[in-house]
Design a protein that fits this description.
Radius of gyration: 19 Å
Helix content: 25-40%
Keywords: Cell shape, Cell wall biogenesis/degradation, Isomerase, Peptidoglycan synthesis
Order of helices and strands: EHEHEHEHEHHEHHHEHEHEH
Largest sheet: 5 strands, parallel
Function: Provides the (R)-glutamate required for cell wall biosynthesis.
CATH architecture of the largest domain: 3-Layer(aba) Sandwich
Number of helices: 12
Family: Belongs to the aspartate/glutamate racemases family.
GO biological process, one term: peptidoglycan biosynthetic process
GO molecular function, one term: glutamate racemase activity
Distance between the termini: 27 Å
């Protein structure tokens, strides 16, 4: 694995060519979406609902997948290094860090200190407390997200008004990646994990689930079986998409040809990743 402080990572296209050789976006200002895997596609889908004619450049940092297992400081440095390199090639209309782990790490280390202005996705814990009737809330996230000082403090404040059970799971990230790649997924391992965190009575009392990873909205149908009383599935994709729309000049009636390009930081499995992105309209 390259150090986040090493030379700027090379960027690759799904056909194995270098992104440096790609000219199609140089005359356009894309919305840049950054994640270590495919989870940021949930943000892309919300953006496309609001501004279907937006040009989107997705930077999948597959060489560093998953961010959730890295330290916050390393992830912040990694994201900065990626954006430093990318912004020499394109001029973004907006940048979305479509990863909760990376976003809360940026908050912890001071978003104002980041060299690039970014829109962040952070767990919507306050919204979950407001939405819950039973005040019984499951908070699903990666271990990296749950170690964040910002998140720890948010949970502590929310527990004044609700029971909040944080559950660290990398399993769901893997399941989401496999599902988008067309594989069959099983929730058995996750169900066993839940038994370590919750009694059956607690599990059945949960009416609100915070999806603290952009991968997790892809799995709501399967998660309904685990949390059958849950009516509220809280995540940040829609909120950050609205923030982007409010801050840009992109209009839904634009007639320009739309470009959706995915780029990767590791060539060896770019083809595998690109199969998923091509099914979602990316070239």
């Amino acid at each position: 694995m390259n150090s986040p402080l090493s030379n700027t990572p090379k960027l690759w296209l799904g056909n194995g060519s270098r992104f440096d050789e790609m000219q199609m976006l140089k005359s356009k200002r894309p919305i840049v979406v950054v994640d270590s895997g495919v989870g940021g596609l949930t943000v892309v889908r919300e953006l496309e609902k609001l501004i279907p004619n937006a040009n989107i450049l997705y930077l999948a940092d597959n060489a560093w997948f998953p961010y959730g297992s890295k330290t916050g400081a390393d992830v912040v440095q990694r994201v900065e290094k990626l954006l430093d390199g990318l912004c020499t090639k394109v001029e973004p209309e907006a940048i979305v860090v479509a990863c909760n782990t990376a976003s809360v790490a940026i908050v912890d280390h001071g978003a104002e200190n980041l060299r690039h202005k970014c829109f962040l996705v952070t767990p919507q814990i306050n919204e979950a407390v407001d939405a819950s009737k039973t005040k019984c809330i499951a908070f699903l996230a990666t271990a990296g997200t749950l170690k964040s000082n910002h998140v720890i403090q948010s949970i502590a404040r929310s527990r004044v008004n609700a029971a909040v059970w944080p559950i660290a799971t990398q399993t769901l990230v893997t399941l989401a990646e496999e599902m988008l790649a067309g594989g069959e997924v099983s929730f058995e391992d996750f169900e066993e994990l839940i038994c370590l965190y919750l009694t059956e009575e607690q599990r059945l009392s949960i009416d609100t689930v915070v999806l603290g990873c952009t991968h997790f909205p892809l799995l709501i149908d399967g998660l309904r079986r685990v949390f059958p009383a849950a009516d509220n599935w809280i995540h940040s994709a829609r909120k950050v998409a609205l923030q982007v729309v409010a801050s840009t000049d992109i209009t839904s009636d634009s007639i320009d040809e739309v470009s959706k390009v995915a780029t990767y930081t590791r060539e060896s499995d770019a083809v595998k990743y690109h199969q998923v992105f091509s099914m979602n309209g990316f070239c």
